[in-house]
Amino acid sequence: MPSPQAQAGGFQQPQDQPGAWQQQPQYPPPVQYPAAQGSPQYPAAQGSPQYPAAQGSPQYPAAQGYPQYPPQQQPAGAYGYLATPPQATPTQYPAAQSYPPYPPQQQPARGYGYLATPPQATPTRSKRRRVALVATLVVVLVLTIGSVTLFIRNRGTDDPWSQAWLDGFEEAWSLKAPTDSDGQTLSTALLEDRLVRVASTSSTATITVYDVSGDAPEQLWETEQDITNTVVWPALWDRQIIIENTFIDLDSQARSDAPWDADARVTIMSNGAVACVDTTCQFWSSPSKKLWEVEFPTDTAVEMWYSRTDDYSIVSSIEYEDYFVVDLKTGNMNRLDGKKYVFPYKLNDGWLTYEGNASTEPTTYHLYELDGTPSESFKSDHQYDFSEYPWSPTPFTREQARLWLEDLDLSWAPATYTVSQTDSDCDSITINRNDVELGETNALTNAESGGECTGTSPVQALTYAGYGQVQSFNIQDGDKRYLMLVDMLTGRSSELISLGSFDDFASYGLHEDLLLVTYQSGKVVAYQPNS
């Protein structure tokens, strides 16, 4: 996965920057594997086979890219550099006690709707089919294919999905790939009705701005900027396009100097910009006002993860080995325990990390308060011995996460879903008595040699909760990739949204009700619910 600057292409989700859609780091809970040198990479595109092994943490092959919460998040709605897997602000539901706890182990309907069937009897462990662990949170992926470098961010949605997507969708507009893009890194950012596309070599960036308010993109202007390193993704801050340490006004094209060095890794937050150089980060509330500067105790360069909130976020080393919770108002920090490439999970009232090889030893989970102060740690060994998951439209609380991960307690959950026992291939989940097929390379289901269907790792429940009632799943069919949206209360699903082939290396991001799918070639296709 890419580096948190977006990690996610660094996807940043600028907070409180309505309309800003940039590839930035997002909060990434799942395990990610480094892809391109130095920047975080995600194994293969979502849907590609992964094995549950290491800690049962979610893994996603390719499309997902960088951690989203960390650098995955950026100013509100930004689809660019990662800032931390930003937890998309979900529609608020009558949450059960602060935050939805894991679904109760008993069936009947509850405040959030009908509960999925009770957990099936624990199947006998035996030879297992290899299972792909898919992390659908915001993550950035950096891949180098031939002469083209692609930064992908998947589960890359800054806003919650609406129910309208389940009734059908249509293409809103599309933008052809630029000519002669070989050897260039292509990235996009969206702010309101302005689309920014950057084609970058190691020395020159070509910035093109389009008006996408109509049926087809209309080019407004194009300019070039000398650079010292390839631009991974453009960041947008207060209608300024950030290219290294230069501001380019989105409307007038006027240039001005940014207050940080050209090699800074910049993450746009809802209340300012964070620029990190080596192991030091600075927080700017405006181009002329620096609130704090902090050096982090790590041996490698760091970057800030995007966060939708203006209280706390994650700073991680670009090697994804060290993680810190940072108070965005003061710069105070606390280190989190964990394992390399295992991203912290954002909870309703804190954070969660874990470590240990679930296939050979119990997993150790660490819970923290919002400021990163240790809360408690515990061990658990529940890999493959369950078939029912808890679900909530809002992030789990620390107590709910502990109940689920330590004891598989579902009594607190607003709703649950189960691994289908009617699908002989063990590729489906059951929601409200409706089977939803996820395909063989999914992160939730496992097939035992005896024909039993079980869950994979309990921590996967956190990956598919907390984003509102409609959740996105990446589907693989041969070399084709698709996005499917599922109502986690009713089991109703959308038609498949094409993400092209694995060779297309498409990334996607949601801004309000507009879905942008960007291909490595620079082609962009926008979808919207049927009008």
From TrEMBL:
Q: Where is the composition biased (Low complexity)?
A: 1-25, 58-67, 74-99
Q: Which PROSITE patterns match?
A: RICIN_B_LECTIN (PS50231)
What's in the keyword line of the UniProt record?
A: Membrane, Transmembrane, Transmembrane helix
Superkingdom in the source lineage: Bacteria
Q: Which residues cross the membrane?
A: 131-152
> Where are the stretches annotated Disordered?
1-108
Protein name, per record: Uncharacterized protein
Q: Upper taxonomic classification of the species? A: Bacteria, Bacillati, Actinomycetota, Actinomycetes, Actinomycetales
